[in-house]
Amino acid sequence: MTSVTEASTLSSAEAMRARRKARLAHALNRTAATLQIVGLGWLSPLLRMAAGDSPRQQGQELWQQMGVPLTALMLFLAAWAWLAPQVNTSLGAIPGPAQVWEQIGILHADHKAERAKEAAFYDRQAKRNAELLAKDPAAEVKTRPYAGKPTYLDQILTSLKTVFTGFLLGALVAVPLGVACGLSRTVNAAMNPLIQIFKPVSPLAWLPLVTMVVSATVSSDNPTFEKSFLTSAVTVTLCSLWPTLINTAVGVSSIDKDLMNVGKVLQLSGPTMVRRLVLPSALPYIFTGLRLSLGVGWMVLIAAEMLAQNPGLGKFVWDEFQNGSSSSLARIMVAVFTIGLIGFLLDRVMLAFQAAVSHTGTR
C-alpha cells in the first residue's frame, strides 16, 4: 500500500514538473518570437541557456544569430578602414569609420549647443517681457519663436514626421481601394490600368507637379502646414500607396469563397462582412503591403528632400555635398548610415505592430 502511495506521489510530482516545463517552454517561445520581431533574436539562446537548455546547442544558435553577424560587421569595418584612404575625391579621401564616428560626436555636440542657445533665447525673452509688464501691466509683449538653424537631430525628426504623414495618407487611400478591387472584378478592371500607369512613376517626376499644386492651393501666409512639408508628404503618398493597394487587393481576392458564402448565409451587411471576415483574413497581405510602402516612402522622401531642398535628411545630405568642407564626406556617411538604420527600425516597428494587431508571431 505504501509503495502504491509513493508511486502515485512521484507520478504527480513528475506531472507537475512536466507542466512547469511546458509552461516555461511556451513562455520562452513567446519571448523568442517577440525578440525576433524587434531585432533582438540573439537574446533567445541566452534565455534558453539560463532556463537549462543544452548549452552546446544554444551556444551554436547564439553563434549563428550573434557571432556570425558581428564577425561580418567587423570584417566590413576592417575592409572599409583599409580601402577608404586609398580612394581620393575632390573633397579628399573617403572617410573611414574613425572619422565618421568623430562626426557623430560633433553633430551631437552641435545639437546640445543649439538647444542651449534656444533655452537662453527664451529665457532672455521671458525676462524682457516680465520687465515690460512690471513697468506697464498694459504693455503688449511679443513672443517670438527661436529662429536658429535646425540641427542634425531636428532634420531626422522632420523626415520622420513627413514620412509617417505621407505613409498614413497613402494607407487611408490604398486599403479601401484595395478592398474594393479585391471584392469587385469591375472595380479591379477599372483600377488596374491606372495602377499600371502610375505605379512606376518616379518621385522626381511627381515632385514638380506636387510643388505647383501645393503652391497654388496653400496660399495662406501662416498655413497650418508648411508648403515644403506638404510637398514632401504628398510626394511620399503618391509613390508609396501602390504596394499596399496591390497587396490588399491580392489578399482580399484570395479569401476562401466558402468563408464569404458563410457571411452571405448569415446575411451579414457589406460593412460587417468587410470588418469581420475580409479584413482579418487579408491582414497578412495588408501588412506586407504596408511594410513595403513604408520602405518605399522612406526612400522617396530622401530623394524629394534633396531635389526640392525641403527640410530633412535629404536636404542635410545635399547641403553637405554643396558645402565641400573637409568634414562633408564624413557627415554624408553619417547620414547614409542613419537613413539605413532608420529604415530598418521602421520595418521592425511595422512588424511589431502587425504582431500586436493580428496576434501572430508571438505565440
Automatic annotation (TrEMBL):
The keyword Transmembrane appears for this protein: yes
Location in or out of the cell: Cell membrane
Every ABC transmembrane type-1 domain range: 156-350
Highest taxon of source: Bacteria
SUPFAM superfamilies hit by this protein: MetI-like
Transmembrane spans: 62-83, 163-185, 197-217, 229-250, 282-308, 328-346
UniProt key word Cell membrane: yes
Listed PROSITE patterns: ABC_TM1
UniProt membrane topology term: Multi-pass membrane protein
Gene Ontology biological process terms from the UniProt entry: transmembrane transport
InterPro entries given in the database record: MetI-like, MetI-like_sf
Record-level GO cellular component terms: plasma membrane
Family: Belongs to the binding-protein-dependent transport system permease family.
Protein name: Nitrate transporter integral membrane protein
Species name: Azospirillum baldaniorum
